[in-house]
Structure formats: C-alpha cells, structure tokens
Amino acid sequence: MTGVIVNQTSQTASGAVCAHWRDFLALTKPRVMTLVVFTGLCGLLAAPGHIHPVLAFTAILCIALGAGAAGALNQWHEAEIDALMKRTANRPLPAGRMDRQAALHFGVGLGVFSVLLLGLAANWLAAAILAVSILFYVLVYTVWLKPRTAQNIVIGGAAGAFPPLIGWAAVTGDVSALPIALFCLIFFWTPPHFWSLALFVKTDYANAGIPMLPVVAGEVTTRRQIWGYTAIMAAAAMAPVLLRLTGPIYGTTALLLTALFAVLAFRVSVNRERDPERMLAERRLFKFSILYLFIIFGAVVVDRWVYA
Ligand code: HEM
Ligand SMILES: CC(C)=CCC/C(C)=C/CC/C(C)=C/COP(=O)(O)OP(=O)(O)O
C-alpha cells in the first residue's frame, strides 16, 4: 500500500517532496467534511428568502473549502502526533508524502480564499462566521485545548457547529433562532459522537499523549458523560419544535431518531466491555451519530419547505 502511494510523489532537485493531488485532498479530511458541508447546505436551504443558485453553490463551495483549510492546518500542526497513531499514521505528512510547508501554504491559501470569496459572493457576516470557525478549529481546538484538557472537544466542538449559521447567514444576512438552535444541536451532539469513538481508539490517544476523556478520566466517566450529553442533545433536538420554529415533519423525525440515539447511548453508558475490538455498542453509537445528523438536518429542510 505504502509502496503504491510513494510512487505517486516525486522529489525536486532540492529534495522537497512534490505531493500528489490525492494527498492535498486527504489533507482536507473529505469524509468528515461531507457532513460539515451538508449541515451548512441545510442551513442555507432552510433559510427564508431567495439566493441566486450560482451564489448558493458558491457559498456551499466556500464552506467546503474553509472546512478543508481547517483540516489541512490541523494536520500541519499535528504531523508528529498523527505519526504516533495507527488511525492517522498514513496521512500525507506523517507518511512523508508531503512537505509541511506545502501543507501550511495550502491551508492558509485555501482559508483566506474561501473567506474572501464568501464575503464577495454572499455577505461579510457569513464570511466572518466562516473565518471564526476556521480559527476556532485551528487555534482554539487544535493548538490550545486538544493537547491540554479532556474538555477539548466540548468547547472546541463549537467549530463544527457553525456551518448551519453560515449557510443561513449567506441567504438572509443575519442569524436567528432556528440556526442558533441547530448550532446547539451539533454542539451537544459532538461529545457522544466523538467519545463513543474515543472509547475504542483510546490506546491510540494514550500512545500519542493526547488527554482525551477515556484516557484521563477513565471509561466509566466517559460512558456517563456520553449519556449526560445525549440528554442535553435531546433537549436541543426538540427545541425547534417547542419554539414552533419547525413543524410536525421535523418533530416526528427528531423524536424517533433521538429516541433511538438515546437507546444506543444508554447501552454504551451501561456497557462494561474493556476490549476495544468488542466494543460493539460504542461502534454502533458512533456510526449512528453520523446518520442521525444527516437525517435530522434533512428533515429540517423538508419541514421548512412543506410548511413554508
Ligand atoms: C471536535 C469535534 C469532533 C471531533 C474531535 C471529531 C472526531 C472524529 C474522528 C476522530 C473521526 C474518525 C474518522 C477519521 O479519522 O477521519 C470522526 C469521524 C467523523 N466525523 Fe467527527 N469529530 C468532531 C466533530 C464532527 C462534526 C461537527 C461533524 C459534522 C458535522 C463530524 C462528522 C464526522 C463524520 C461524517 C465522520 C465519519 C468519517 C468517515 O466516514 O470516515 N465530526 N470524527
Ligand atoms: C470551517 C469549518 C466549518 C470548520 C469545521 C471544522 C470541524 C470542526 C470539523 C469537524 C471536526 C473534526 C474534523 C474533528 C476531527 O478531530 P481531530 O482534529 O482531533 O481529529 P484527528 O485526530 O482525526 O486529527
């Protein structure tokens, strides 16, 4: 596998590595970013008012490019840490397929370009929120909190919650109750999403010296916290219905999906399995967390269109 990838890079006369375009793509964490971009798209589609389809496409492209820039700068900063973890060791920087400077230039260039383009195509409020999300993910989460505290993802997770606000602001030029409720939903969804995964990749984080919750506080505390945040997330998921911001389509979908999420989170909270290979409840919750956000955000859009 490694041999194949190494063949895709070449070296200049000065010894610098010329990375393949696939490595630049990998730097943007494309799989994670699909959901980030989807929540931004749903924020845009749920917003009242009209935006020209070309501008709408540009706005979503800017969210994708901005999120990709954030991912690239995260990998630029964490090259040494990524080399210590099985899950991340084959990324372009730790695997030696790309120079760190190229990753830095790529990340900064893409970030600046995405913010400026969004400001020019949509408005400067949307661009400012995009800039805040990039800076929040890179500086607050990656550089400051991640290596220091087990609460890193609780606070740092806010970065991933901004896209619905960006999409909404791109159309309306402001933010209001519904996009703020959607921000809260992603914010409180992030701890169960990430800690369910952290339970079965705990050894990786321990080896890399990153103070993720299962490493520093133990598995029992992590399982309890997953359950606690799921309860708050459930309240956030129902808030748009209680505040009459959405109708019965969203209400029914949110109720059913959140009930299922709660069942899976409860199973994790009472599970005492210690072998990461056999942590089926945790793997199930992690996978379902992704499906959950896709469907619930889709339901917001369908609901707003049907009851508009
Ligand atoms: C600080 C907050 C978060 C942390 C620490 C986190 C961490 C992770 C990690 C470590 C993975 C494993 C997959 C990989 O190595 O790429 C993952 C997967 C994933 N995350 Fe998160 N995540 C966070 C927030 C979010 C947010 C806000 C979204 C989207 C709204 C998201 C969407 C996804 C998706 C779609 C995957 C699956 C990717 C795949 O199929 O490989 N995550 N997350
Ligand atoms: C501009 C914008 C909308 C940005 C959103 C960026 C964002 C917060 C994305 C989702 C979170 C994410 C990729 C976490 C990975 O955590 P990690 O970096 O700890 O994971 P790793 O160990 O895989 O590097």
TrEMBL record:
MF (Gene Ontology): protoheme IX farnesyltransferase activity
Protein keywords: Cell membrane, Heme biosynthesis, Membrane, Transferase, Transmembrane, Transmembrane helix
Catalytic activity: heme b + (2E,6E)-farnesyl diphosphate + H2O = Fe(II)-heme o + diphosphate
Transmembrane feature ranges: 32-51, 57-76, 102-121, 127-145, 152-171, 177-201, 226-243, 249-270, 290-307
Highest rank taxon of the organism: Bacteria
The protein's annotated pathway: Porphyrin-containing compound metabolism; heme O biosynthesis; heme O from protoheme: step 1/1
Entry annotated with the keyword Mitochondrion: no
Listed InterPro entries: Protohaem_IX_farnesylTrfase, UbiA_prenyltransferase, UbiA_prenylTrfase_CS, UbiA_sf
BP GO annotations: heme O biosynthetic process
Membrane topology: Multi-pass membrane protein
CDD domains: PT_UbiA_Cox10
Family statement drawn from the similarity comment of this UniProt entry: Belongs to the UbiA prenyltransferase family. Protoheme IX farnesyltransferase subfamily.
Function: Converts heme B (protoheme IX) to heme O by substitution of the vinyl group on carbon 2 of heme B porphyrin ring with a hydroxyethyl farnesyl side group.
Something else known: Carbon 2 of the heme B porphyrin ring is defined according to the Fischer nomenclature.
NCBIfam families in the record: cyoE_ctaB, PRK04375.1-2
Name under which the protein is recorded: Protoheme IX farnesyltransferase
Organism of origin: Sphingobium subterraneum
